[in-house]
Specification:
By secondary structure, the chain is mainly α. The protein contains 6 helices and 2 strands; from the N terminus they run αααββααα.
């Protein structure tokens, strides 16, 4: 379950926007600089996050980005699934019709347990949890 670079950038962008809540709206250039994200790539990611309802934007000289709902607790799992799709350890879990063992896979239960363990961490970790743990470190 390797996260794509795009997914990692999306998580870092949401993190930075949430971290700097008191400075909203945050300019994309500031997000890019703080999180070492290529600016042109970031613009596409921000557009996708906006389309997904995670963030909102304000146009103009004083414009930038902010969370669409400041009260919402966005989880890491939500962002990952939105940007990258389902998280599975093997492709056949997404489409069992292509499983060579056709339901007789001795590994299936183990793959499910591995997926569930990873998803539990991602789905129980909010962006605000990450901020809190980095501030206490």
């Amino acid at each position: 379950m390797i996260l794509s670079q795009k997914c990692q950038y999306a998580l870092r962008a949401i993190y930075e926007i949430t971290l700097r809540e008191s400075d909203w709206p945050i300019k994309s250039g500031d997000i890019a600089e703080a999180q070492a994200i290529p600016p042109r790539f970031l613009e596409n990611i921000l557009a996708q996050l906006k389309a997904g309802g995670f963030i909102d934007s304000k146009r103009g000289k004083e414009g930038g980005y902010m969370l669409a709902n400041a009260e919402r607790q966005i989880t890491v799992g939500e962002i990952i699934r939105y940007i990258q799709g389902p998280l599975v350890p093997v492709h056949c879990m997404m489409d069992t019709a292509h499983c060579e063992l056709q339901g007789n896979c001795p590994f299936h239960h183990m793959w499910e347990r591995a997926r569930d363990a990873v998803l539990e961490v991602y789905d129980q970790t909010t962006v605000r949890d990450l901020i809190a743990s980095s501030e206490s470190a």
